[in-house]
Amino acid sequence: MKIKLPAVFLIVLFYTSCAGQSKNPSAPEPDFSIYESERIIEINKIIETKDGAGVNRMPNWFRSYLDGGINEVEKLEAYRNKYTFIGINEGANADVLNKWADNFSAFHDLPVLAAARIENRMIAAASLYPDDEYGPFFERMIKNAYSGEYPGAVKEDTYWIKYWFENEDTWEYTESYMFFVLITIDKNALQANIRNMMARTFSAVTVTNVQRNSINRLRQTFFQGF
């Protein structure tokens, strides 16, 4: 069924199944996966949703996500003291994607989502190319973020939509499912974890004085807009 949504909505995609599968080899492989790209889906391309009852029955977190992304989700009272992350995957086979969502693990898969946000924050804060701004600290920090553990993360909910799009190769109309998994983690706990990660990373690399100053500024302001 078609549902009433804003004319377009922006999806920031933070998940790649490859990283999850390396830690969970039993997880099924979706048709294809998306990592940190943007997709605009128009209202007339939405075919159906998980609950089948339209926009009024969508979970609050999902409606907020469609309206304004992660920032809007974190403004909800239920998540006011938490960071929220949304793993996303897409394909034509709903059964396979259902299994992917069922196997999605806060423990195993949050590092991919958290590391992507950490990397984006470091890039946004850099006045130069990050490798020049932070030296080896940048690459080492990202690697540590991907391999790190994030205690206390909780898998809160899953949701899906089905939509149609025009295939750029064949110019035919194709239907696809998009699945969303919501994970939350206590804000203070994650901040403490990242601060400790930064301290360990900083002590393990050699940087110039200029880079050291940039890293110190980053550590002081990192969570502004994170």
**Spatial arrangement of strands, main beta sheet:** 2-5-7-6-4
Q: Give a short account of the largest sheet.
A: 5 strands, antiparallel
- How many distinct folded domains? 1
Number of strands: 7
β-sheet strand percentage: 25-35%
Regarding quaternary structure, how should these chains be classified? Answer: single chain
Q: In angstroms, what separates the terminal alpha carbons?
A: 36 Å
Cα gyration radius (Å): 19 Å
Average pLDDT score: 82
Poorly predicted runs of 5 or more residues:
1-29, 34-38
- Coarse structural class: alpha+beta
Task: Please bin the fraction of helical residues.
Answer: 40-55%
> What is the overall number of helices?
9
The secondary-structure element order is EHEEEHHEHHHHEEHH
Query: Can you tell me the overall shape?
Result: elongated
Could you walk me through the main structural features you see in this protein, from its secondary elements to its overall organization?
Residues 1-29 and 34-38 have low confidence and may be disordered. With 226 residues, this protein is of the alpha+beta class. The protein has one domain (8-221). It is built from nine helices and seven strands; from the N terminus they run E-H-E-E-E-H-H-E-H-H-H-H-E-E-H-H. It starts with 7 loop residues before the first strand and ends in a 5-residue tail after the last helix.
